[in-house]
Amino acid sequence: MKEMPSLDDLMLFLAVADNGGLAGAARVTGRSVPTLSRRMQQLERVLEQVLFSRGKQGYILTAQGRVLRENLSEFQGAECDLRKVLEHGPRPQVRITAGSWTALFLAQNLPRFWNQACAWVPDFMESTVPLDIARRGADIGLRNAPPEQPWLAGRRTRRVTYAVYARSIEIKGFLGLSERVRQTPSAKWVWDTYREDISITATSPRMLLDLACAGAGLVVLPCFVGETVQELQQIGESIEALSHEEWLVCHHEARHDRVIRDALDRLSELLCS
């Protein structure tokens, strides 16, 4: 049986066709230009047709593209009605688990990868303990290493670096997670390296950030967090011992689910940008 194009790809085709190309479609759909380009290539592959002439003037519909656009004109209205119906029903949740700092980053950048037009809603699960994706304890995990189990699939996103931050260079004494709570790699590094210099402890990474902003001590943060906090400045070079790759991980079967795949694509765009 011949592969069928996805509803989402057909709607993106209409956006590209009706908005003069990829840039115009990106503005109305919220998708990036590279993603739209990739999806149009995918649609052409599935249909085995060339839908656009690509040149200096942008994306121009070919004869086959114009036929498809005309054939979809009535469908476009029906699709809009269908979306209105679906919007009043429950949308599937995509459970996303991440450590404290990545969860904070996702929350702060939510509009860059999710909006009310999405066919799914995020369910954020902040955790320092990797949840069991194999048993579907979560749908997508943000991890600091590639998956080792054969039933998990991984997608590398970015390299995460760490550094020491403080309100000013005059600040002395480190802030550390309490030893009675689960230690993250960066928290372990602080205890191993500056045990005698730890002046204040707290039970959550976010509390350490608040204490640092108040001038209570030095704190080790991922640079993607520290760079966005106006009250803090980086002290010294990045800490090579803590640098690591970041991975999006999901069950290898779940990645073929349309909703999970869309969430993976959107998160990947954000984290790789």
List keywords for this structure.
273 residues; alpha/beta; 10 helices; 23% strand; elongated
H-E order? HHHEEHHEHEEEEEHEHEHEEH
In terms of quaternary structure, what is this? single chain
Low-confidence stretches: 84-88
Strand content: 15-25%
Question: What features would you describe in this structure?
Answer:
The chain has 273 residues and is α/β, with parallel strands linked by helices. The chain is 39% helix and 23% strand. The protein has 10 helices and 12 strands. The strands form 4 sheets. The protein has a 5-stranded mixed β-sheet with strand order 4-3-5-12-6. A 3-stranded antiparallel β-sheet has the order 10-7-11, with helices on both faces. Helix 1 (7-18) crosses helix 2 (22-29) and helix 1 (7-18) crosses helix 3 (33-47). It is elongated and about 75 Å long. It starts with 6 loop residues before the first helix and ends with a helix. Mean pLDDT is 87; it is low at 84-88.
Could you give the topology of this structure?
Elements (H helix, E strand, L loop, with lengths): L6 H12 L3 H8 L3 H15 L4 E4 L2 E4 L1 H9 L1 H15 L5 E6 L1 H9 L12 E6 L13 E4 L8 E9 L1 E5 L7 E4 L7 H10 L3 E5 L2 H9 L5 E4 H4 L6 E3 L8 E8 L6 H15 L1
Parallel strand pairs: 3-4, 3-5, 8-9
Antiparallel strand pairs: 1-2, 5-12, 6-12, 7-10, 7-11
Helix pairs in contact: 1-2, 1-3
